[in-house]
Amino acid sequence: MPAIFKNHHAYSKMDVEDPEDRTHRRAQFLIYKTLQEADDAHRIRSHANKKRSGGSYFGIRFGNLRVKVGQRVKKLRNSLCFNVSLARIGVYRRVVAQLKTWRKLMAGRERFGSAAAATALHRPLFITA
């Protein structure tokens, strides 16, 4: 029997992920990656300082780290805001299109009378019994 059939989880399909969870996971990854880079840079610096002057292990500088994390989070936030604004524009266009349709309908109703406007529609607005 092939190895694929022995482990039935070998090629399992991933569920659809929520966009908020995806952005949260991405932000966490970026923060983790930046912290890892800062830690590596600190180890290299502290190792070089110990060789030169016997420097302290706790001499950590967080200024550059804050700037890097801040820039990446700001970039992520701006992309989210851009997506939200695009969604808003789409909703706005739909509402405006509906209002134009209603305005044309009401103008036609006033011009031709209610009976002509009702017959011009595909289906009547008001059902009278």
Query: What percent strand?
Result: under 5%
Assign an overall shape: elongated
Question: What gap, in angstroms, lies between the N and C termini?
Answer: 72 Å
Number of helices: 4
Poorly predicted parts: 54-58
Write down the overall mean pLDDT. 72
Q: Characterize the biggest β-sheet.
A: none
In angstroms, what is the radius of gyration? 31 Å
What is the count of β-strands? Answer: 0
- The SSE string, one letter per element, is HHHH
Percent of residues in helical segments? over 70%
Structural category is mainly alpha
Structure characterization notes:
The structure is a single chain. By secondary structure, the protein is mainly alpha-helical. It has a domain at 26-51 and 59-118. The protein contains four helices and no strands. The protein has helices at residues 3-6, 19-53, 63-112, 114-120. The model is unreliable at 54-58 (pLDDT under 50).
Search tags:
129 residues, mainly alpha, 74% helix
Briefly say what this structure is.
With 129 residues, the chain is mostly helical.
How are the SSEs ordered, and which strands pair?
Layout: H1 3-6, H2 19-53, H3 63-112, H4 114-120
